[in-house]
Specification:
The two termini are 36 Å apart. The chain folds into 2 domains: 298 residues, no CATH class; 92 residues, no CATH class. It contains 10 helices and 26 strands. It is globular and about 60 Å long. Helix 2 packs parallel to helix 3. Strand 4 and strand 5 form a beta hairpin. By secondary structure, the chain is an alpha+beta fold.
Length: 393
């Protein structure tokens, strides 16, 4: 980004600032991010960064620049900046303390996760939020989550958080690492963590709405998971056949074609009532089993899905949101990596990027999206913050 672009990104409303940098040097990128997020009375900063940055250098520079301002973030599978889809960058936003009250915490060592500890932690956060709130907490608050995308802990963590939040909406995303599947981190209190979850409670005077949805349409073909390792999210067999072979047969592709692109273009889902929740394949293994991004278990029925119009669905959804709360001054966006790969594969990447820029989306491509107690794939999930904030002195 040049100086003119950074100036254009700086502020769209009194409650938030946002921006970013695509500089490859971690210290320089952090400095450029800091410049675009400058605010007189900040409540907190959230950032999303490319995994290629030197984490130690990035962490050290962010700590020096932002000082005691709470800064939270994660590594990604691609960033969404105010310029649209921006892989290989750092992007973020700052919330004003005049319009937002924020409480934050980190849950470490998810390998020994305790539902009771998580529940008690969130309840304590809510008590602190209620003492400082600038609007009624029950109807004017939302929660954000950032989890290590390789922790295989999302379902357990989200269930505990959702119960403790007692109806306050929760949205978030699982950290990525550009499809390397080995090096995902969250950031809290001036350092990066693996195997951890960052939780953020936000109380605000601004109108907002949460959203989570996809563009996929169910086909008739189904597969039953007949052998699985749920702890590792691995399906060994589908319809009593090696999982990869049966997936290829149903999707009418060859084993040699299996890749992140083929998984993105040939999605699966689980039906719950009248709703379909995507279950994306992460990778094929040497024994022809399939590892998934989300929970998988023996007996689950998977439905073949087809594209229902990625760009059109998002545009229609946003037109409805605008009619309800007006033009957004910020959308905190958690966008599945398979949506970006699908857009690339179908030649609609620029259209999708332009839409995200138009609606002021700041966020990242995830290894899974969080919606209340649900861990899902192939969705755009987020919080839309409207412009017409009331000011309280």
């Amino acid at each position: 980004m040049n100086a003119v672009e950074r100036q254009q990104l700086n502020t769209y409303g009194p409650a938030v600032t946002y921006g970013g940098s695509d500089h490859t040097n971690a210290a320089t990128a952090a400095q450029e991010l800091y410049q675009t997020l400058a605010m007189a009375n900040p409540a907190c900063v959230l950032f999303f960064c490319c995994v290629d940055y030197d984490r130690n250098e990035l962490s050290r520079t962010l700590a020096e620049l932002f000082g005691d301002i709470p800064v939270l973030g994660c590594t990604t599978a691609g960033e969404i900046s105010p310029l649209g889809l921006s892989p290989g960058s750092i992007t973020g936003f700052c919330l004003s303390a005049d319009h937002f009250v924020v409480e934050t915490t980190i849950l470490q060592n998810l390998a020994t996760f305790s539902e009771q500890v998580a529940y008690d932690t969130v309840k304590s956060m809510l008590h602190r939020l209620e003492r400082r709130a600038i609007a009624p907490v029950a109807h004017n608050s939302f929660a954000l989550s950032l989890l290590d995308g390789m922790s295989i802990s999302e379902e357990l963590v989200l269930s505990a958080l959702n119960e403790a939040l007692s109806g306050i909406p929760l949205v978030g995303g699982s950290a990525g690492d550009n499809l390397h599947f080995r090096d995902t981190h969250v950031y809290y209190d001036k350092q990066f963590y693996s195997n951890a979850a960052v939780i953020i409670l936000v109380n605000t005077l601004c109108p907002f709405t949460v959203l989570s949805g996809h563009h996929l349409v169910a086909e008739r073909e189904k597969m039953v998971v007949t052998k699985a390792d749920p702890e590792k999210r691995i399906a060994h067999e589908l319809n009593a056949e090696p999982a990869a072979l049966e997936y290829c047969r149903v999707m009418d592709i060859s084993l040699d074609e299996l890749s992140s692109t083929s998984y993105a273009l040939h999605p699966l889902s689980v039906q719950v009532g009248d709703n379909y929740f995507a279950r994306s394949v992460q990778q094929v293994n040497d024994d022809l089993s399939l590892t998934f991004f989300c929970a998988i278990d023996t007996g689950i029925v998977l439905t073949k899905m087809r594209d229902g119009g990625l760009v059109e669905e998002f545009e229609n959804r946003m037109e409805q949101v605008v009619s309800e709360i007006g033009e957004p001054q910020l959308i905190i966006g958690y966008d599945c990596i398979h949506r970006r790969i699908e857009a690339e594969g179908k030649g609609i990447y620029s259209e999708l990027s332009d839409l995200y820029q138009r609606y002021k989306v700041v966020g990242f491509n995830t290894y899974g999206e969080h919606s209340d107690a649900m861990h899902v794939n192939h969705t755009f999930t987020g919080v839309v913050i409207g412009e017409s904030c009331e000011f309280s002195a």
